[in-house]
Specification:
This protein is mostly helical. The protein is 48% helix and 7% strand.
């Protein structure tokens, strides 16, 4: 295994260390070669042991599941997009196309730390936070990571902003400012029925009981066997 640090001596007689990858340098605080070599050996050993432990862990994991050391979060995303009813699958697939997941998308699960997940959590809104935790839990449930990267209590709470309905005055202002007749009628439909945008757009004449003056439709987000 290549050493992380090498030793060199400056004209002032002091010994220094240099990191081979970054070329970063620092003093060892001694002019005695044997002392400098001992200090440098300690620095290299401090780096080597965690690296060696990680290499051994990956070897054991590969023996248990050959794909475990290379499986990325994109694989977990693809798997989650196959769960649930068709509309849920479409919604998951669409959500995971967001660039918000790019920091971990191609990152192997076994190389992901709690800091990686927390950074993604804090940098995004509640939608990403919700799906991120579901991804993590699915990976644990499938045995794709040996233990949780973040314990249940370590996940920050998702705090939702309070929601309210639009007031009659606000609705009137929207209608008054909308110059497109078709869009204005669509806004009126949503306001009067309380339908979601998708449900409102999917309404047809067959959803209306003309004789009794009743509108009946099935909400798209509910299952096929739910009450209208």
């Amino acid at each position: 295994m290549q050493q992380k640090y090498r030793l060199y001596r400056r004209r002032n007689g002091k010994f220094y260390w240099q990191e081979n990858d970054s070329q970063k340098q620092g003093t060892l605080g001694t002019s005695d070669r044997r002392e400098a070599e001992r200090l440098l050996s300690a620095k290299n050993e401090a780096h080597r042991q965690p690296t060696l432990n990680l290499s051994l862990a990956r070897a054991y994991l590969a023996a248990h599941d050959p794909q475990m050391v290379s499986r990325t979060w994109q694989v977990v995303m693809d798997e989650m997009a196959t769960h649930g009813i068709p509309t849920t699958q479409v919604r998951c697939a669409r959500a995971f196309r967001s660039k918000a997941y790019d920091p971990i998308r191609t990152k192997p699960l076994v190389q992901t730390t709690g800091a990686d997940l927390l950074a993604l959590h804090h940098a995004n809104g509640n939608c990403v936070r919700h799906y991120l935790r579901r991804l993590h839990n699915l990976a644990v449930d499938l045995g794709w990571i040996a233990w949780p990267i973040l314990a249940k209590r370590a996940w920050p709470k998702i705090r939702s902003e309070s929601m309210r309905a639009i007031t009659a005055e606000e609705h009137a202002a929207v209608i008054a400012s909308e110059g497109n007749n078709e869009r204005r009628s669509y806004y009126e439909l949503l306001y009067e029925t309380g339908a979601s945008q998708t449900d409102g757009a999917n309404l047809t004449a067959e959803d209306i009981d003309w004789e009794n003056g009743v509108l009946v439709y099935r909400r798209q987000k509910l299952g096929p066997f739910s009450e209208p």
